[in-house]
Design brief:
The protein is built from 5 helices and 8 strands. It has 203 residues and is an alpha+beta fold. The chain is globular, with a radius of gyration of 17 Å. Its cofactor is Mg(2+).
């Protein structure tokens, strides 16, 4: 069974990826599970640039360790709000200045959208996924899910901006959905479905 190393230690993200790719003959591991302690600086201008850089640096590290027959998957995802010209974008995780502080990030977003009517609060979650193999193969895909930013957080599941991201067709925020439901319609879910198709040619 081929090993897929996910260039992340975000438990929510790892869980979603394992769930969506569970039908494939892969052993999916996080960086922590592989004993890799590398923090790649995400200084790209796009989600795809950040994803590629993360995957590339982990692949190079593993090659130097003499490892063979592996794949590294990296993803970078975030929220793009139309009214804010695509903010927070690649800065989604550190929008309020402190990496991973969802509460502060959500507060800043709501502050910036204060007084903006619902129909103008359109946004999209974007997920760019890159897979690089030890044999030099590349997969690059992107998934997107459109929605609106509501004024007050709703729901207790999910993470990040999920309590504010409302999907009109389902009349729910991401945080109000079950994990299974969210995975079936989310930006990461869409990207990983594309990954599954691409991986079939490699596995």
């Amino acid at each position: 069974m081929k090993k897929l190393i996910v260039a992340s230690n975000n438990e929510h993200k790892i869980r979603e990826i394992k769930e969506i790719l569970k039908d494939l003959p892969l052993k999916i591991c996080s960086l922590k599970e592989e004993g890799i302690n590398i923090d790649v600086e995400e200084d790209g201008k796009t989600f795809m640039e950040n994803s590629y850089k993360k995957a590339y640096e982990i692949v190079e590290y593993l090659k130097k360790q003499g490892k063979e027959h592996f794949m590294v998957m990296a993803d970078d995802s975030g929220l793009m709000v139309d009214y804010l010209n695509g903010e927070p974008g690649v800065y989604s995780a550190r929008y309020a200045g402190e990496h991973g502080n969802s509460k502060k990030n959500n507060e800043k977003l709501l502050e910036k959208l204060n007084g903006v009517p619902f129909e103008e609060r359109t946004a999209a979650f974007v997920c760019a996924v890159v897979i690089l193999t030890s044999e030099g193969k590349e997969i690059k895909v992107e998934g997107k899910r459109k929605g609106n930013i509501i004024e007050n957080p709703k729901g207790f599941d999910g993470f990040g901006y999920d309590p504010l991201f409302y999907v009109p067709e389902f009349k729910m925020t991401f945080a109000e959905m079950s994990g299974e439901k969210k995975n079936s319609i989310s930006h990461r879910g869409k990207a990983l479905e594309l990954v599954k198709e691409e991986l079939k040619d490699i596995l």
